[in-house]
Amino acid sequence: MSGKEQTNMLLFNKWDTTNIEIEDEGLKNVIHLHPSMTIPITFGRHEHQRLKKAEVNIVERLANKLMHFGKRYAKNTGRMGGKKARVMNVVKTSLEIIFLETGKNPVELLIRAIENASPNEDTTRIVYGGVVYHVSVDVSPLRRVDLALRFIAEGVRESTYSSPQTMEEVLAKEIILASENDMNSYAIKKKNEQERIAMSSR
Question: What pLDDT does residue 66 have?
Fold first, then answer.
């Protein structure tokens, strides 16, 4: 396969990601967009290499977060644990719903949602002389993307439990709201809450 063909490869055979620009300068090196395959599944090749997940397609990283749908503190358990193909179908359908509702490239809206939902500050615990202090710290770019994807996935999980809405509809709605920086978005609420706590700890 030539380099030209690889550049023009479409995500899910539908969405072109080559012309999408990442507006947040801090996230340009940690959001990977250009797919090397139509269905972005790397089978965990990056898992044992430090910081390698920055090179994993952002849509696959979203799918990986959505698989953490079980117990609160136990990853990859419960009804969605390990069901990668099923989650990929959920993401694919959600992107189609976003396109039908907005008429825009859904992958671009996902990038805008991540940029809006990624917090710049967090708090950490420092023990000094037996006293615990909570101190505000800057968040690294890779963790900012991780937190944004986690907030989006948490919002989908909270909304779909005991709800007649499908996971695909809720995910599409959450991405659209977050891309517009709407306060009705769970991810935007979590980001603002985290930054507010960090600001009070300065």
Answer: 87
